[in-house]
Structure formats: structure tokens, C-alpha cells
Amino acid sequence: MGRVVVDVMPKPEILDPQGKAVAGALPRLGFAQFTSVRQGKRFELEVDGEVTPEVLAAALAAAETVLSNPVIEDVVRVAVAPEVVGSTEPTA
Amino acid sequence: MGRVVVDVMPKPEILDPQGKAVAGALPRLGFAQFTSVRQGKRFELEVDGEVTPEVLAAALAAAETVLSNPVIEDVVRVAVAPEVVGSTEPTA
């Protein structure tokens, strides 16, 4: 079973109220080192079998037409997930 | 200027209605190859200067206490963004 990861972020020129809220909360909670936060979306798409180049191309098309709003969002990454088990482990 | 990326996904055992909605829409829109979709969040945290190991440790702490709800979500990745310009370019 393969997995494709799609990352979508608000365009830089678009106001991001969720990110602004997080950026405002972090210093109050002891994390003063972060100057700016932007919040986007991460999708994990599963396919039966291997992630072929065709699947990756379909994922890119889906990312640009279904998973993101191109007026306000950029697709920043479409990539094969390295391992299914790996995606539940934090890596610092 | 450094940037840390934090990815948060709903735990596997938690129902993900957003992902379910996307998974239902994809086949109707011509993307029948994807069997399952889960939707999570991606945060980009900016810092002045380099991303030091201390900054990364702070980002991990923030990810686990502020950016995610540990009851229903897993922090799946805390990593240095490869390049600031790179994050606006899709990579397939």
C-alpha cells in the first residue's frame, strides 16, 4: 500500500488568521523564538499497490484542482510518503 | 531566516470527517486511484537566524503542546524547511 503526501499552504500574500492566532499564542506560552506562523493543510492519499509516476501525476492534478483553492493556496509539496509506519512517529 | 515545518495528523483510530469528504469527492472528480484520504495540518514556524537544535527542540515542544491536541492528533514531523523559496514551488 502506497501513500502520497500533499502539502497545501496559504499564498504568502494572503492573510492567514489561523497562523496569526497561533503566532500570537506561542510567546504567551513560552515559545518566544518564533516570529511568524502560517498554517496550511496536509493530505495523505492512500493507493493500493505502489506509488507509480502515474499515481504521483494524478495526485498532483488532484492537489491543484480538488485539494487546494488556487486563488488563495499553493501546493507546496506532492511526494511519496517514505514509509507508512514512519508517518506516525515524530522525527525531530 | 530559518523555518521549521510541523506536520500534525489525526490519530489513525480517530474518525476524520474532512478526509472522508475528500475521499468521497475524488472518485466523482476523476481520481479513482485513491482509496483513502486523511487530512491534517501543516505549520510553518519562522525564526530569526538559523534553526539551531535548541530551536528544533522548542518547535517539537510547541508542536506537542500548542499545535496539536494529543488526545486526537499525532505530531508526524518536525523538520527544518529545506529552503524558504523552495516552499512555494510544487515538487512532484
Number of domains of chain A: 1
Number of H/I helices of chain A: 2
Residue share in helix of chain A:
25-40%
- Radius of gyration of chain A over alpha carbons? 16 Å
Taking strands numbered 1, 2, ... along the chain, how are they ordered across the largest sheet of chain A? 2-1-3
What is the quaternary state of this protein?
Answer: homodimer
Strand content of chain A: 25-35%
> Which descriptor suits the 3D outline of chain A?
elongated
Element pattern of chain A in H and E = EHEHE
Mean pLDDT of chain A: 89
**Helical/strand content category of chain A:** alpha+beta
Largest sheet of chain A: 3 strands, antiparallel
Q: What would CATH call the class of chain A? A: Alpha Beta
Major interchain interface with per-chain residue totals: A-B, 52 and 52 residues
The CATH superfamily of chain A is Phosphoribosylformylglycinamidine synthase subunit PurS
Number of strands of chain A: 3
Pfam family, one (chains A, B): PurS
EC number (chains A, B): 6.3.5.3
Catalytic activity (chains A, B): N(2)-formyl-N(1)-(5-phospho-beta-D-ribosyl)glycinamide + L-glutamine + ATP + H2O = 2-formamido-N(1)-(5-O-phospho-beta-D-ribosyl)acetamidine + L-glutamate + ADP + phosphate + H(+)
Enzyme class (chains A, B): ligase
